[in-house]
Amino acid sequence: MVKKDSLIKGTIILAAAALVARFLGIFQRIPLDYMTDSHGGGYFTVANNIYLMLLIVATGGIPSAISKMVSERYAQGRPDEAKRIYKAALLFGSVTGVLITVLLLVFAPFYATHIAEKPGADLAVRAIAPALLFFPIIAMMRGYFQGRQLMAAGGVSQIIEQILRVITAVGLAYMVLAWGWGQRWIAAAATFGSVFGSVGAFIVMLSYARKLRRQDALDKSAAALEKSAVSEKRSTLSFKSIYRELFKISVPIVITSMTVQFIYFFDTSFFIKLTHGYYSVPDADQMLDWLGVKAQALAGIPPILAIALSQSMIPVISSAYSVRNMKEVERQASLVMRIVVFTGVPVSLIMTVAATSITGLLFANTGGSLAVAALTAGTIFQITMMTSNTILTSMNKPRMPMRHALIGIVVKVVTSLALAPLFGVYGLILSSTICFMTIASLNFRMIRKEITLSILGTRWIGYALTIAISSGAGWAVDYACRHYITGIPVKLTYALSCILTGGVSFGLYVALLILLRVITAADAASFPGPLRKLLNPLMRIAARQAN
Questions:
Q1: Total-model pTM
Q2: Residues 422, 276: contact at Cβ < 8 Å?
Q3: What is the pLDDT of residues 260-310, one digit of tens each?
Q4: Burial status of residue 25 (CB atoms within 10 A of its CB: 0-12, 13-18, 19 or more)
Q5: Is there a contact between 160 and 98 (Cβ–Cβ < 8 Å)?
Q6: Whose CB among 151, 242, 282, 439 lies 3.0–4.6 Å from 408's, allowing a Cys bridge?
Q7: How far apart are CA 409 and CA 179, in angstroms?
Q8: What letter would DSSP give residue 339?
Q9: C-alpha–C-alpha distance, residues 364 and 90, integer Å
C-alpha cells in the first residue's frame, strides 16, 4: 500500500534527499580533481553547468505547479482532471527532453568554442546531453507524486540518481584514464555518469507509478458503484488550458529559482572572455578548474540546512496570510529569518575561515582555496536572498521575487563586466555577492510594506561581535594547525585543522550568542526541537549567572 506523507515527514524526506545529493555531488568532484588537470576540470565544469542551467529552464518550477494543481483537484474531488494534468505534463516533459537534447548535441561545438572558449569541452557537453531525455519526465512525475502527498518517491529517486551518477562517473573516468585517452575523454566519461543516474531515477519513478496505479485501482473497486461511474468520466479539460495554468504558476518560480545556477553558468561560460586581460591562458584554465570543481561545489553546502529549516515554516506563513492574520505572518516570518541567521551564518563562517584546510583535505591540493573562501562567504547573502524569496512567495506574491531576480541578474552581468577584468575570479565572485545583496534588499523592501520584521532588533552589535570573535578565533586555530602541526601526513593535518577550527568557531559562536544576550529565552523557546536541545543547557547557565 502506498502511504501519504505528512507535511513534516515530507519536508524531512526532501531536505534529507537534497543534503545527500549535495554531498554525493561533492564526492564526485574529489576523485575527478585527482584524475584531471586544469583542462579536464574546465571541460567538466563547462559541460556540467550548461546542463544544470538547461535542466532548470526545462523543469524548474513546473513540478511545484503540477503539485499545486494536482493537490487542488484531488481536494475538490476531481481526480479525472488531476490525471489529465499529469498526462499533459508527461507529454510536455517528453517533447522538452527530446528538443533540448537534440539542440545540445547539435550546438555543443559552437557553445564550447565560441562562447566558453574551451573547444575541448564539446565532447563532455555531448556526453551529458542524453540525461536531459529523462530528467524533464522525471521532474513531472515528482511534481505529480508530491501533489498526491507521496514525497518519498522524489526523495528516493534523487538519492538513487546521485549514487548511480557518482559510481558510474568515477568508474568510467578511471577506466578512460587507465586507457590513456586524454583529458577530453576523462571529462566526457565523468559527465556521462549523469545519464546512468537519470536512467536509475526514471526506473524508481516508474516503480512508484506502478504502485500508485494499483492503489488507485483498489480504491476505485472499494468505492460505491455510482461514485466509480463518476470518477471514470473523462475530463474535458483541454491541454491548452492546462498549459496556460501551468506556465502562469511556474514561470515566476523558474526565473526565481534559476538565479544561483545562472550565476554559475555565466561565470564558467564567460570566464575566459571576461578575464582575458587579467590571466594568461594557462592561469585562466587553472582558475576555471578551481572555480567549478572546488569553489562552486563547496559553496552549495551552507544554504542547505538554513533553507530546509525555513521551508518547514512556509505553510504556516501561507495559512496565516490567507486569513489576513498579519500578526502571525509577522511573527512567523521574523522567526524564519532569525533561524536562518543563527544557523546559516556559522556554517558559512566555519567553511570560510577553514577553506584552505577543507580544500586540502578533500582535493589533491589547496589550489583555489581563496576562491572557495570568497564564494562561501557570499553564501550568507545567498541564504538571505533565498529565504526572503520564499517569504514573499508564501505571502502570495511570487511575481515580486521574479522581478527582483531579473534585476539582480542584470546587476550581476553589469558588475561582472566591470570587475572581472580588474580582479579576475574574485571580481566575478564579488559581482555574485552584489547580486545576492541586491535581490535580498529588494525583497525586504517589499516585505516591509506589509509587515515589520523583527529579527534581532537592537542586538545586531552583539551579533557582529559574535561573528568577529568566533571567526577570528577559528582563523587563528586553522593557521596554527597548518603551520605548527608537523610530523604527520598532510591530509591528517588538514583533518585535525578542520575539526579543531569547526569546534572552536562553533563553540564560541553559540556561547557568545547567549552570553552577549543575542539569543533570548523567548527566542530559544520558539526554535525547532533540535535547536532547543542544543541551546537549553547554555541558556540555563547564562540565567544562573545573570541571577
A1: 0.80
A2: no
A3: 989 999 999 999 999 988 999 899 999 999 998 899 989 988 887 666 665
A4: middle
A5: no
A6: 439
A7: 43
A8: H
A9: 43
269, three cell numbers: 561560460
Cβ pair 271, 263 in contact under 8 A: no
Nearest to 384 by CA among 443, 326, 465: 443
Q: Is 424 helix (H, G, I), strand (E, B) or coil?
A: coil
CB 110 within 8 A of CB 27: no
pLDDT tens-digit map of 488-522: 999 999 999 999 999 999 999 988 888 888 877 76
Dihedral class, residue 527 (left if φ above 0, else alpha if ψ from -120 to 50, else beta) = beta
Q: Which residue has the cell 505553510?
A: 315
pLDDT value of position 228: 47
Buried b (16+ CB within 10 A) or exposed e, 162-185: bebbbbbbbebbbebbeeeeebbb
**Crossing angle (nearest 10°) for helices 131-147 and 151-179:** 160
CB 326 within 8 A of CB 451: yes
Dist. CA 346–CA 353, nearest whole Å: 11
Give the three cell numbers for residue 298.
Answer: 563547496
Nearest to 18 by CA among 311, 435, 324, 337: 311
Query: Residue 108: what residue type?
Result: A
Alpha helices in 76-150 (DSSP H): 79-110, 122-128, 131-147
Residues 6+ apart with CB under 8 A from 200: 157, 160, 161, 163, 164
> Rounded to 5 degrees, what are φ and ψ at 6?
-70, 170
Q: Which three cell numbers stand for residue 523?
A: 527566542
* Greatest Cα pair distance in the chain: 81
- Alpha-carbon torsion, ordered 484, 486, 490, 496, to 10 deg: -60
391 contacts: CB under 8 Å, gap ≥ 6: 314, 317, 333, 336, 337, 443, 447
Residue 68 buriedness (CB in 10 A; 0-12 / 13-18 / 19+): middle
**Alpha-carbon gap, residue 173 to 28, rounded angstroms:** 11
Q: To which residue does cell 526554535 refer?
A: 527
CA 514/CA 524 separation, integer angstroms:
10
**Nearest to 239, CA basis, from 72, 62, 81:** 81
Sequence letter at residue 296: Q
Q: Rounded to an integer, what distance in angstroms lies between the CA atom of residue 66 and that of residue 141? A: 9
